[in-house]
Amino acid sequence: MHRGPYRSVHRAAGAAVALALVAGGLAGCSKDGPEGTLEDFVAGWKAGDLSKVGFVGADGGKIAAPAVLEQIKAVSGDLARQPLTVTAEGEPQTRGDDATSALKLDWKLPGDVAWSYQSTVRLTKQNSDGWRVVWEPSVLHNDLTNGDKFQVTRLPADRASILDSAGKPIVSPRPVIMIGVEPQKVTDLAKLRAGLATEFKKIGVTVDTANLADRIKNAQPQSFLELITLREPDYNKIRPGLRALNGTAFIKEDRPLAPSRVFARALLGTVDAATAEDLEKNPQTLVQGDTVGHGGLQQKYDTALRGTPGVSVTISGGTDGDEADSTGQEESVPKALFMTDPVAGKPIKTTLDVQTQNAADQALAAEKQPSSLVAIKISDSSVLAVANGPDGGGVNTALTGQVAPGSTFKAISTYGILQKKAATADSVVACPKTAVVGGRQFKNSHDMALGNVPFHVDFAKSCNTAFVGLAPKLGADGLRTAAEAVGLGGRWDLGVEAFSGKLSPADSPTELAAATFGQGATAVSPLAMAGATAAIARGQFKQPKLVLDPAPAAPAADGAALDQASVTALRKMMREVVTSGTATALRGVPGGAVFGKTGTAEFSEATEDTHSWFIGYQGDVAFAVMVQKGGAGSEAAVPIVSRFLTNLAK
């Protein structure tokens, strides 16, 4: 069977109602002359009330106004609920008892596409009845005849990809398997549920089937009741077992996906079928079956990525007289009236590096507590990886978290101390077991007391009380200046939501003492600390960059060069943390020398739990790791760094 060039896939349904049916009988004549009748017709069409207008058909027989409204709605077809403006073009051309007039019709098609054209309306004078409108489908369009109607076909646009630093798609169509149940095939529900649980457990997936009995009861026998969608490689691991279960059904399709299920998931977001809420918010641009970005970059840049669907308007219901099916009957062939081509989405270019992102995701995979890792290329401040665990994370804590930095902040305050010459790396700075400021007692981890030792030893061993003692010499201004020099607390624009830090006011001796070693009111994200670490390694702050195209509107300006002598000394102290301090577990990692600082961050007086931190750099890569409730920096964060750098060196 031959089919026309367009076929309706999704029927349009707009919010504005252009036509409405009203009650009424046969209308009498309106104003004298065809001009008045035409005016009443256009006004009544707009208002959905044609009671002031008289109508006849092409055969001259009278037609009731409500019937005309019904026929207008029927002929409008898929456009019946789309906004329409009708305007009379000029004066009617009269010849005896007949007149014609041009009408201008302006439709607002789905997607806010405008379609304008002219049609012709005929009028006739019938003795004492006066002028009447001749109703025929061609009033809506000159090509419409009896039995015809408008048909709208939506032409989907190709969704664009999110690109990595090499310009290659991160997200691209990849095969998935929708796993479900077909009610009519279920023979033993209890056995089916047990079998599903066993198979899904093999790949570490849990699927809730508690309400499956009700779903089966309320569904059609041949329905497909979806349970879960798996990437094809994951599905293949349990394929034989699943297919052996009576009642299972499967649908294979391609979906836009990243290289792995956890790959920068909280940053990228997902592409899923449009929800009822999506459709309600975007009635002119989305229809049932569309895919939409949810969360992360996919949602933020959804409009650009999704592109613009095309739309075609055709006439359906009639015949062209030239086609016939096998029985000799004429076949309906839609006639094209109007079309806009779909415009493919525009890719979003990022700085993500696939190898680095994979190494980061794999490094977090073994950590059960919520964790984050951000890696930045020191030479140009490109964000190479944004990882959240476990399982990819639902919240992008790596970029938006707001937590105390703990002793990792000592790298910043040490820069301020060195720059202000409050101490040198070799200055003897006492490290007592405790220190009291304003009635508040500060102590070291594990009740450590080093006594009088060089400042670089205090730093390497992470002595809190040494920094408490130096806090008055650094001062609130010195602390803020040092933090701002490495970009903390600035206005950043990466093209995605990000937190650059909030600095403590350090407005009391106690708050200043706490803030100097990363407690108090200071809050940062892993991104902020990775950016600060990159600034130390580079010798200048450059705002981290993530989205390259479209370019962010207002990225932060580059900072001034850091004090050379101070930052050089600080780097040596960060190296000592690894060689003989709190991060000696990193001494033997592949890839070269590691520089860094551990951190243990208290976050609530109601618990002894602490966040585990490590900031550091190796070669051209700076990074920050944070594990929520992970304990000391050496306990959770350092092992993650070890796995990350080992993976990166492979």
List the helices and strands and how they pair.
Blueprint: H1 33-47, E1 55-56, E2 62-63, H2 65-76, E3 84-95, E4 98-109, E5 113-125, E6 131-134, E7 149-155, E8 162-163, E9 172-181, H3 189-201, H4 212-217, E10 225-231, H5 232-243, E11 248-257, H6 265-268, E12 270-273, H7 276-281, E13 291-294, H8 296-300, H9 302-306, E14 310-316, E15 335-340, E16 348-350, H10 354-365, E17 371-377, E18 383-389, H11 397-400, H12 410-419, E19 428-431, E20 434-437, E21 440-443, E22 451-454, H13 455-461, H14 464-485, H15 509-516, H16 526-538, E23 547-549, H17 564-580, E24 595-602, E25 610-618, E26 621-627, H18 637-649
Parallel strand pairs: 1-6, 8-16
Antiparallel strand pairs: 1-2, 3-4, 4-5, 5-6, 7-14, 9-10, 9-11, 12-13, 14-15, 16-23, 17-18, 17-26, 19-22, 20-21, 24-25, 25-26
Helix pairs in contact: 10-18, 12-14, 12-17, 13-17, 14-15
